[in-house]
Amino acid sequence: MSGRRLAFLGLGVMGFPMAGHLARTGHAVTVYNRTPAKAARWVEKHGGKSTATPAAAVAEAEIVLMCVGNDDDVRAVALGEGGALAAMKAGATLVDHTTASASVARELYAAAKSRGVRFLDAPVSGGQAGAANGKLTIMVGGDADVFAAAEPVLASYARAVTLMGPAGAGQLTKMVNQISVASVIQGLAEGINFAGRAGLDVERVLDVISKGAAQSWQMENRGKTMAADQFDFGFAVDWMRKDLAICLSEARRNGAALPMTAVIDQFYSRIQARGGGRWDTSSLIRLLRDAK
User: Fold this and answer.
1) What is the pTM of this model?
2) CA 104 → CA 94, 119, 130, 284, distances in Å?
3) Which fold has domain 172-289?
């Protein structure tokens, strides 16, 4: 599907390439970013146009896509002064790709509905590489008819787009993803550290076990860089802590036990204390490698 009038709000490490895929697919894309220089760079690379406010960006858009930082950013961009929702046309759709809380997703769903606008919460998984390569996994919450209309657009930068349930279900699914990822990274860190201390060839170990039941995306994409002590890339510890805080808050609400997640969250706090807030999440191994 091409030729739609779209707006994309938020041009960070994820949003910049995601919006680029929309332009390459043939859509007319207007962008907004809090830092205007980044929006200008996007327009220089991909065409389209940029605006000074979210409201100006969305005025003519059929679908508005948003990827910002956290709940407060979502509210500011969608509901704040000069925000998107009040300026959107009746019948248009707002898609929020931010990893945020289920409660803010439900809040935006209700606010959008009161204005005659449709809403989907649609957090993504796949990291910066997935965004750049158009291979993200998108977990969506919202109404089935709204999802069906928006799905061909979302497919511009995704390998899988799945409706998980009503508003908030996309965010809840992303929480499951982050809970699982954190535990996998910690297990991989322990295994690699064990292999090194046992005198094994770590890369050879990873090559062997990646062909068996221990295989994971983290092993395939982070195992060798963990062994090489390389962390200056990827999904930042600061952002993982933000995500895990959302998971732990939701678990307190629904009664789910997250003992491993709580412990790993504290491990990440120790990485931050070492100045590693912008290191990749695989830096958990640093705590084990430095232990006596």
Assistant:
1) 0.95
2) 14, 12, 25, 30
3) N-(1-d-carboxylethyl)-l-norvaline Dehydrogenase; domain 2 (1.10.1040)
